[in-house]
Inverse folding.
């Protein structure tokens, strides 16, 4: 019995000596921590760029090496403030998410690769809703084949997400595309304006192409562009 006890004690002493495992001993390793890994930017108009700075701290006992920082898509630019964070200190990861052309709920992930043996890849997240602050309906006018003697009239609706809206200018790069702002009727939605679109009967037969450009009193919004195309034929050709 005494021999077995001595053998067990010797084995325990050997394991402790080889692996350095002692009760209460501090683990020598870096530890990456982000107390707020998720940033919710709420609702933002989709002509903006969301920027956020995540605070990364080293809660370990050895220097934390930031080996790489990357995003889940090319629309998000990321950068680390430093490549090495000493124990007990902090650094930052900057994220820049371009909302232009996007709408609805957005989720983007930032991956921070480090030498933390427990968390070699830390995941940070950007989320929120991109709102169309200003839109035009329809987004394009494609007529197909049209007879010169029966050219249709279409209406473009320019709609703001909120608040009253005014058109400050509108034009077309094709002089045969004619535009007229329709008067707002009493009681109509103040966040919407309408533009009547017609084709001049003087346009020659063949292909018609052009773009309609619309500006509003929203200085922070880009100029709206609506592509337009049709193929015009004469009444005689259509009859044949």
């Amino acid at each position: 019995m005494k021999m077995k006890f001595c053998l067990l004690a010797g084995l325990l002493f050997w394991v402790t000596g080889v692996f350095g495992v002692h009760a209460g001993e501090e683990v020598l390793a870096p530890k990456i921590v982000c107390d707020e890994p998720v940033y919710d930017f709420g609702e933002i108009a989709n002509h903006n760029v969301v920027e956020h700075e995540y605070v990364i701290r080293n809660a370990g006992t050895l220097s934390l090496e930031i080996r790489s920082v990357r995003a889940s898509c090319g629309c998000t630019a990321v950068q680390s403030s430093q490549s090495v964070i000493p124990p007990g200190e902090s650094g930052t990861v900057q994220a820049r998410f371009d909302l232009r052309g996007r709408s609805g709920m957005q989720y983007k992930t930032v991956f921070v690769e480090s030498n933390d043996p427990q968390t070699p890849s830390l995941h940070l997240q950007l989320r929120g809703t991109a709102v169309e602050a200003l839109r035009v309906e329809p987004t394009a006018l494609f007529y197909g084949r049209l007879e010169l003697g029966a050219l249709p009239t279409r209406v473009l609706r320019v709609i703001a997400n909120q608040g009253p809206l005014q058109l400050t200018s509108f034009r077309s790069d094709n002089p045969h595309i004619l535009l007229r702002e329709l008067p707002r009727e009493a009681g109509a939605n103040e966040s919407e304006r309408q533009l009547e679109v017609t084709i001049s009967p003087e346009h020659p037969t063949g292909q018609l192409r052009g773009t309609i450009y619309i500006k509003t009193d929203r200085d922070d919004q880009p100029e709206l562009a609506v592509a337009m195309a049709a193929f015009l034929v004469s009444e005689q050709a259509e009859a044949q």
In short: The domain at 28-131 is CATH 2.60.40.10 (Immunoglobulin-like). The first strand starts at residue 32 and ends at 33. The mean pLDDT is 86. Residues 2-19 form the longest helix (18 residues).
